[in-house]
Design goal:
Elements lengths: L1 H72 L12 E11 L6 E8 L3 E6 L8 E10 L2 E19 L4 E11 L1 H14 L1
């Protein structure tokens, strides 16, 4: 009987061993599967976080570029002038060529070939303006008239107040007015 009990015991031991290894293998498979699923979820979460971070960086770069564009729009174009400009503050009256309605503004800088005007009216690039401003030199008072073209514009001076700036290039000025303008500019230099 002992042999039969030994055989049953040994076959029970082998059977137990095979069942245990099957269970252990199954548990190992399940744990490996869960680890892979968790790693996949972690990696996909990292991709989502990276995507949001890149989106945030793109948005920040876009905002920076917009701020730089706004800053550049508040600056006059690069200096390409042949004639030096002088800061002044003179009243100016102007009207567009096809309009009889005069408007007021301020000449903020002036040269032999052009001027910067600040006004409440926005002017279009390429428009031609008849302009008149007065100069005082010592006891001499003179009025200068010219035809000028708008070559650039912006809204920077004081948006809250609605002030606009534009650069004008002189197109037509009489010889006498040009001489008076040049004499005035020489007193400023």
């Amino acid at each position: 009987m002992e042999s039969r009990a030994g055989v049953e015991e040994s076959s029970f031991g082998v059977s137990y061993y095979w069942k245990s290894t099957k269970i252990a293998a199954f548990l190992g498979f399940v744990i490996t599967f869960l680890v892979i699923v968790l790693l996949f979820r972690l990696i996909s979460s990292l991709f989502v976080v990276l995507e949001h971070a890149l989106g945030f960086l793109k948005k920040a770069k876009l905002m920076e570029a917009e701020a730089e564009t706004k800053l550049r729009s508040c600056m006059p174009p690069l200096e390409r002038r042949k004639c030096p400009r002088f800061d002044v503050d003179l009243p100016v009256r102007y009207n567009e060529m096809n309009s009889s309605m005069s408007r007021n503004g301020r000449v903020m800088n002036l040269s032999e070939s052009g001027m910067l005007i600040q006004s409440h009216d926005q002017m279009e690039i390429g428009h031609h303006l008849k302009s008149t401003f007065s100069l005082v030199r010592g006891s001499e008072f003179c009025t200068i008239e010219m035809l000028a073209e708008v070559v650039w514009r912006d809204i920077c001076m004081s948006e809250a107040w609605g002030d606009y700036r534009c650069g004008l290039k002189f197109l037509d000025i009489s010889a006498g007015d040009k001489n008076r303008l040049n004499n005035f500019l020489m007193t400023l230099s």
